[in-house]
Specification:
This protein has 310 residues and is of the alpha+beta class. The chain is 25% helix and 35% strand. The chain has two domains: 170 residues, 2-Layer Sandwich (Alpha-Beta Plaits); 108 residues, no CATH class. The strands form five sheets. Strands 3-6-8-7 form a four-stranded mixed β-sheet. Strands 9-15-11-12 form a four-stranded antiparallel β-sheet. Strands 10-14-13 form a three-stranded antiparallel β-sheet.
């Protein structure tokens, strides 16, 4: 998205309006989330299949229409997303109300839908296989798979169906979630120092990740508009492989290195006219093997003495 928060707000206003006016019109509740839009659609048990298939039809149509969804908006002249990913689940949820107003929903289906949305990359629809599909025209647009999801299906896989011509399921989701420790490396540098890393900069990691697909590289920085700080706003940019960085193993697999494209960061910071002395925080997180606890030792003489006393 644009680095300008007012442009981002305008884009979200326009795109949410188009989605809610043209798709999922049988919803009972919606709310923006940190990285998307939550839609709740009610059903009665006899109509669960027809309601589910209508929702899936809307989801498939929205994915196809999304690149041109707001091309006729005269004020949207800045870069914005061209793809959308949609996660769909089904089940019982709890509704939080105040008098007759619905405040929010909570429950496992919401968590599942959110995790499936994360899977829908670079675009497409990912659906919990518990959602019924009897219409062959809809069913033929999906293929089945099994995935492991953090906090939802860590040891036993969840059966899903997804759009194979649009969505790529990373191999990391096909293995049980390990109980490895989480290691985070932090660095704070100025924009001047970032410029000195122009091109590809090599970050040598302190340890070797147990799962390269779970790497998280996050850059945090204060927001600026035309060189003036926007108070109270911190930007968060998550770097993604392979466009932002490349992961390699060196020294016979004993040393992990991230080759980060700093030119992309420099362009982002320059676009908002960031002053050279601005502090930028870089965080690299990844799973590592838990340290093996040494076997406990027993003082045999003390133990015998204790038994004799008793």
């Amino acid at each position: 998205m644009s680095a300008n928060p007012s442009e981002t707000a305008l884009y979200l206003k326009k795109v949410y309006a188009r989605i809610l006016d043209g798709y999922f019109t049988n919803l009972s509740f919606f709310k923006p989330t940190g990285d998307g839009l939550l839609v709740v659609i009610p059903f009665e048990e006899p109509s669960v299949t027809s309601v589910s298939e209508r929702a899936l039809t809307d989801a498939l149509n929205l994915v196809n229409a999304f690149p041109d969804l707001i091309t006729d908006e005269p004020l949207i002249t800045f870069p914005h997303p061209e793809n959308v990913g949609i996660g769909v689940s089904l089940g019982s949820v709890a509704r939080l109300t105040a008098k007759r107003t619905t405040l929010d929903y909570t429950g496992r289906p919401l968590n599942v839908a959110s995790r499936l949305m994360d899977l829908a990359r670079p675009t497409g629809v990912v659906v919990d296989a518990a959602v019924p599909i009897t219409d062959s025209t809809i069913a033929e647009q999906f293929v089945s798979d099994e995935v492991y999801l953090k906090g939802v299906a860590e040891k036993t896989p969840l059966r899903i169906v997804f759009t194979p011509n649009k969505t790529e399921i990373p191999d990391s989701y096909r293995s049980p979630i390990s109980s490895d420790a989480w290691h985070v490396e932090k660095e704070s540098i100025t924009f001047v120092e970032v410029k000195k890393r122009a091109g590809t900069f090599r970050h040598g990691l302190q340890r070797v990740p147990t799962n390269r697909h779970r790497l998280e590289v996050v850059v945090r920085y204060p927001d600026y508009k035309n060189g003036r700080a926007v108070r109270g706003i911190e930007r968060r940019r998550e770097l993604a492989a392979p466009t932002d960085y490349e992961y390699v193993l060196e020294n016979g697999g004993k040393r992990a290195v991230l080759k980060v494209d700093y030119d992309r960061l420099i362009r982002t910071f320059s676009a908002i006219k960031m002053p050279g002395g601005t502090n930028i925080n870089i965080e690299i997180g990844y799973p590592v093997e838990k340290p093996v606890s040494p076997p406990s030792t027993v003082d045999l003489s003390a133990l015998l003495a204790s038994i004799a006393t008793k």
